[in-house]
Amino acid sequence: MxxxxxxxxxxxxxxxxxxxxxxxxxxxxxxxVADIEKAFLQVxxxxxxxxxxxxxxxxxxANTYVERQNIQEYRFCRVPFxxxxxxxxxxxxxxxxxxxxxxxxxxxxxxNIYVDNLISGCESVPEALKFYSDTxxxxxxxxxxxxxxxxxxxxxxxxxxxxxxxxxxxxxxxxHIWNIEDDKVAVKPSKFTVCPxxxxxxxxxxxxxxxxxxxxxxxxxxxxxxxxxxxxxxRNLQWDDELSTEDLSKWINISTELKRVSEVxxxxxxxxxxxxxxxxxxxxxxxxxxxRAYSAAVYLHQTCGQSSRSDLIFSKSRLAPVKExxxxxxxLMAVLIGVRV
Length: 341
Prior knowledge:
This is Reverse transcriptase domain-containing protein. Residues 27-146 form the Reverse transcriptase domain. The protein has ten helices and 13 strands. Helix 7 runs antiparallel to helix 8 and helix 8 runs antiparallel to helix 9. With 341 residues, it is α+β, with helices and mostly antiparallel strands. It folds into three domains: 10-37 and 86-181, no CATH class; 201-263, no CATH class; 270-340, no CATH class. A hairpin with a 2-residue loop joins strand 4 (113-114) and strand 5 (117-122).
């Protein structure tokens, strides 16, 4: 018998672009994040749809015997976790509700929400307080509580009600760690722990895949690991074959560098303050290739009077195909990445 998820239509993906949200998050002088409390449980199921979410539970869990008189039947009245259509139902509900408000803040919410997380910011304390107040009111109309607010501005944090803010010094933002005090971000540390036993191609790829770096801040380090795995593949090493002594030595060096990635914090804000409103901004895209890989890197260059700054805001790298290609052709593929970025 097919499962519920096999019978349901998933629905279109309404998620905003994660990289776009994170890059905009870095542009604000004052960053703010918040979370919708128990978001999925705020969306009700229609009466006719509730019967397909029935499940059985024991009346007395201490009774080890599953007997008919000890079985209780329940059904969900709210959108349950794990159902394939739940992300769409939540996103569509939020989008429909926010579209009712034809205001700049509503548009800002719509463009900077990811599942149940709001990631945005403002340029001044008064603007940030108004953003907090208006977004709270908008979600309150949908019976949703926007809570766990936090900002890099101590003034904002002090002015927010204690019931609405979190006092954590580090929070997770789109797969990154955000240090509130220093206003710096880093990728999350790998959860992969070295277990006793042989090191195989499977384990190297598992460790490499643990690093989540969507905007490519650490592409040079990650690509070295990908090249190593590609070399193993070229030699037809099977998934569970043990690495040779030479390969193991190389992997230990690469693995050490990969683990250090999470220790590097970079400034969250790339905003160059301008008093006279004479700031100019340029996006500079650099593309290049080698025999092993090709990539594109995008920098935000800002000038204001005698001041200027350049920040890496996005990069993407790819391994060169196993079938050898000329450097000019690989450079064209790098340009293609830059155009698509």
